[in-house]
Structures are given as C-alpha cells and as structure tokens.
Amino acid sequence: xxxxxxxxxxxxxxxxxAILLILFTLLGGAVDKNPFNKFYFLEADTNGLGxxxxxxxxxxxxxxxxxxxxxxxxxxxxxxxxDPRRNFGTDTIFGGTKYYLESRFMFAFVFIGLFxxxxxxxxxxxxxxxxxxxxxxxxxxxxALFFQTLTAALMTAAYVQGRNAFRSTDRIATLGRYNxxxxxxAVACLFLATLMFCVGGVTGKKDxxxxxxxxxxxxxxxxxxxxxxxxRGSFIDxxxxxxxxKEDDD
Length: 250
Fold this sequence. Notes:
Layout: H1 4-27, E1 42-45, E2 55-58, E3 63-67, E4 70-72, H2 84-88, H3 97-127, H4 131-168, E5 173-175, H5 177-213, H6 226-249
Antiparallel strand pairs: 1-2, 1-5, 2-3, 3-4
C-alpha cells in the first residue's frame, strides 16, 4: 500500500497550520480583540519623537501605542511602512529608504505567499488520490514557501536592524515574539509540506512499478502458470486411462 494518502493528509494539516499562522500575523494591528491585540513586530521607546506615543508597536497596518499591554492602533493603513522618521515626522531618529522598502515588500510578499498556500491546500486534495496531484501540490506549495521565506527574511532584516538602531540611542526596544514565531513557523510548515508532497509522488511511482513487476503472483510469492497446469492435466488423463484398461483385463 502506498503511503501517499497519509503523506498528503499530513501535508494538508501543515499547510492549514501555515495559513492560520500567517492570518494571525495579519490580524495583529487590524483587529482590536484578544489575542490579536498582543501581536506586533517591534516595540520601542519612542518618547519625545515627534508625534509618537511614549511606547510604540509596529504591525502590518500601523504604529500603535500601548495600553494595558495591548495594541491601541489609531487606524488601519495597508502596507504601513516601518520607517520611524517618516512615521513620526521627525529627523531626530533613524529611517530611510532601506527600512521603507523592506517593510513594503514584506507586505506584498506575504499576500502572494498566502494566495499560493491556499491554492496548495485545495490542490492537496488531489494528492490524496493521485501522483500528479502530489507533484502539482508540491510545486504550488514551493511557490508559497518561496514568498513566505522572503517575507520572514525581510521582516527579520528590517525589525532586527530597527531594534538595534533604537538600542544604539539608549532606547528600550524588543521584538514581538509572537509575530516572529508565527512567520518562521509558517516557513517550516510549508517546507515540510512541500517535502512530503514530493515524497508521496515519488513513493507512489515506486509502488506502482513494483506492483506491475510482481503482478500475477500467488500468496506464497510464486507466479501461477497456466501452462504448467495444462501440461500436468495432459499427463493425468492417459495414466488414468491405462489404469482403467488394466482393471478391465483382470
């Protein structure tokens, strides 16, 4: 029995998990409900910086103030850039094109990766019943993996550099462990799903080849031979005839 259906089923669970983790990250800053209002990329001391609150958190959608340990976001702005100089309207803090582009491309790539992950989830249903479905799902999932890896890499580059820049000015800054954990866990899930789809397709091919080569074998592994049975029957009939003639003579 081929292990392809089992591998495909596990892959579907991993893809569904990756999609859920990406959605959790996207909902942080967009939904003012627990636990989504605890999700952010970077928290930093921004006291005295232009229009900034004393403590700010960056999400995909806004730079939020902090109230009772939760995000207090003023509004939702798609592709909100991580650029403190631009965000707070001041030249007394770091910023520039590098941070701006990293965060904007990150926003675009996460939606592209999410789209292909959803496609891989539906194509993965075909992997339960066919090798072609396994390979198609693997290809689609690998595209989702590529864009999700780019998103996680850009996130890490932008916000780790941002944290270090804040700390270099003697300001407290910490990374959001939830968002970083979600994004890199989604990368791991998509990688494992891609690998399992490939293994399922290749294993299904080997199993089919083995079945064709061993087709027509009996329970004990011996191949049945109709020719042998015919030959044996041709010897039995004359022998029985001679025995009957001998009994008649007696």
